[in-house]
Write a structure and sequence with these properties.
Two copies of one chain form a homodimer.
Chain A (H helix, E strand, L loop, with lengths): L6 E5 L5 H10 L5 E5 L11 H16 L5 E4 L2 H14 L4 E2 L2 H11 L4 E6 L1 H5 L2 H9 L4 E6 L3 H7 L5 H16 L4 E5 L7 H8 L4 E4 L1 H14 L12 E5 L4 H11 L6 E3 L2 H5 L2
Parallel strand pairs in A: 1-2, 1-3, 2-9, 3-4, 5-6, 5-7, 7-8, 9-10
EC number (chains A, B): 5.1.1.3
GO molecular function (chains A, B): glutamate racemase activity
Protein name (chains A, B): Glutamate racemase
Chain lengths: 272, 272
């Protein structure tokens, strides 16, 4: 494996770009390849079987780009498919759950931690199991918030309706006196203000993006795989639907113009 | 073609069941085969290219079940892919747009008609073009309502947040003095109460399901293809994701237990 090989990022759609953004700040000289499965998004309401199938197809596609490490920048896919990916891939695979859980435990004082995510992430108890594995005494309070993704994608980030929905979803977590809340879906940082308002200022919001980026750095350093270039890396983006909408959202998320965006035909994913 | 052959219904997910329900009331003795693309739902936020590709795959699958007529029980697919389907299929294809537009024009007195639907349906101006084709003097006011599908699927049918969102989406239509409003997405009848409240009692809500079922009946009668059986028809359901959630929602929609629900592997759809 070559140090200059790119790092692969995978998400069901655009949400993983919040992770890429953290990552680019830490390691601007790495090359990256991102695949967003925009033709089949969202994953959060689909079955485990389907999420695993799609995730393996995406990993296969990125392997053909000679990635040196895979970041599953999607909480649903991390919750459901990480074990299958690790069985199948020989390169390191970093999900959102382990670094997010570790960071939450380091930030929490009362060890009462809230987790919000898609229905699939919450039903699979991925964060809950990981938190308890890392600290058996932790109390975890979970809540699926399926309307947050469409609200974030609509850009209704400070609408009264979003506030009401956040209140409905989050009041119980607040009553359970959590002191940290894991934003267990890569879309949720977009709604951070309204979520903070609903749970109260004293609750620390935990975004897995930054600790995941730190973990990637540790992995690469530990294996002597950091890119030594002094130049900015190249970022290539692949999506399964036509890239018009993706380009627009991605440029907003990352704050710069993107030129390397390509469409992947579904046949390239399914005909292995 | 045999009279006892089934009628095919296609939708991106569960929404088309509201059409099947209308249909079963009119023609309980027909056999039906339903395909819901639950592994790739929703279509309303995807590109035309992808919607056309998925719709042709679904039609191909249903053709292998020897359907005598295809109902595209999905407004997005009807808006985007009907011409391609009609080029490709030799059996009659009924979409939601023509019967919905015709019914709206027959109900409207002031010929100021509102249309709501997914982003794809509204961007394609499918209802607008059809209404103007049928009556060039009609005034059409359109609005995409992307949050209505997730709200309907969440079952938030009388939540204060749903009322606020409906008000935000629909106030402009109300101000434009429409007297009828086409519910241009098969999920929207589920939110009929809150939509009615937002536009006011005087506005007639137009659901394409019933006029589409009537049009199917006319087509079959005209071609001597009505099933003559005095027994209830058999209804078979196929979905692309595992059927657990579909079964639950479908039984709620149709008000009866369903036994014939099968999963279709994606390879069956994509490998033509």
């Amino acid at each position: 494996m070559n140090r200059t090989n790119p790092i692969g990022f995978f998400d069901s759609g655009v949400g993983g770009l919040t992770v890429v953004k953290s990552f680019m700040q830490f390691m601007p000289n790495e090359n990256i390849v991102y695949f967003g499965d925009t033709a089949r998004v969202p994953y959060g309401s689909k079955s485990n079987e389907t999420v695993i199938e799609y995730t393996l197809q995406a990993a296969n596609f990125l392997l053909r780009k000679n990635i040196k490490l895979l970041v599953v920048a999607c909480n649903t896919a991390s919750s459901v498919a990480l074990n299958d990916l690790r069985k199948f891939l020989t390169i390191p695979v970093i999900g959102m759950i382990e670094p997010g859980a570790k960071y939450a435990l380091s930030e929490s004082k009362n060890k009462r931690i809230g987790v919000i995510g898609t229905r699939a992430t919450i039903n699979n108890k991925a964060y809950s199991n990981e938190l308890k594995k890392q600290n058996p005494k932790v109390k975890v309070f979970e809540k699926a918030c399926p309307l947050f993704v469409p609200l974030a994608e609509e850009g209704w980030i400070d609408h009264k309706a979003t506030e009401l929905i956040a209140k409905e979803y989050l009041t119980e977590l607040k009553e359970n006196k959590i002191d940290s809340l894991i934003l267990g879906c890569t879309h949720y940082p977009i709604l951070a203000n309204v979520i903070q308002k609903a749970v109260g200022k004293s609750v620390k919001l935990i975004d897995s993006g930054t600790p995941a980026a730190r973990l990637v750095e540790d992995y690469l350093n530990g294996r002597g795989l950091r890119n030594q270039s002094v130049h900015h890396g190249v970022a290539e983006f692949y999506v399964s639907d036509v890239p018009t909408k993706f380009k627009e959202i991605a440029e907003k998320f990352l704050g710069k113009k993107l030129t390397h965006i390509h469409k992947v035909e579904l046949e390239e994913l399914t005909n292995e």
